[in-house]
User: Fold this.
Amino acid sequence: MDHYQRSARNAFSACIIDRQTEMRADAGSISALAAAADARFLLIHERCCLLRKTDHAMLLLPQPPADSTTCYLGLRQQQPLFAVQLQQASEAARLAAAMAGQWVDLRTAAGTVSADEAGIIAYAIAVFNWQQRHRFCGSCGSPNTQLDGGHRMHCSNPACAQITFPRIDPAMITLIEHDDAILLGRQENWPQRRYSTLAGFVEPGESIEDAVRREVMEEAGVVLDTIHYHSSQPWPFPGSLMLGFRTTASSTQIRLGAELADARWWHLHEFEQSLQSGQLLLSIPQSIAFALISDWYHEHTGRNLGDIVAEI
Ligand SMILES: [Zn+2]
Assistant:
């Protein structure tokens, strides 16, 4: 399995769409696509999407609601697909009732819609999150206006005219191994039994591999030996790109940093027993943390981690 295939298994990474990035600057073409009979509009409201109540399928409108913010996502099965951001709660409630739908947050939706639909919804929410956080120019403070089908911001102050492209925050996440054990940590605000892989944001002037070494040292005081890239995952909470790694530790000595309430090694047998007894809780199956642990578990046992978690 190569990296492309590995990433495609991660939730929000299987978005099958032709983004048509070369067309975005042509406002006339975007307008024509929006007016096309086969155009469809995905509805987003407060980081939630509208799913049909009965079968949790993604609901699409043939026309955008009035006074809504749209973003051109691209061609999906040759159909122009736009995302619509609804501002008013009353309009969101009216549309949900009219379409027999319900508003569902992205994490919940990822567990019910298809992988392709989850990727599309995550894509739309990521763009709207960025738009929401860049309504004003970061250079002069003037209001920004949207260009390129919602994928570019332009400062309205002619003396500034700064262009802003979507911001993505790279973050590393790693499964740390030593012999048949893995290191998992717990943050202070998590439930007592929940542990996960270590993660952190990349700093300016730092390679992603340096960030892996630094974060693991800061959080657990563990020196890493080898670092291997595993896969990536868009994580629009609100705008991250998770870069997953498998790493090995030089030793099992732990020196807990300020960011974690606990960190400990789980040997394979203990890991399996604790998971089955409910003494250990992992991150949601849609997370790259779960994918990293799942691959390690499958390599050692030939069994699927998802089956064990489902039994609890
Ligand atoms: Zn400006």
Remarks:
- The chain has three domains: 11-126, 134-166, 169-311.
- Residues 115-133 form the longest helix (19 residues).
- The CA atoms of residues 130 and 167 lie 7 Å apart.
- The mean pLDDT is 94.
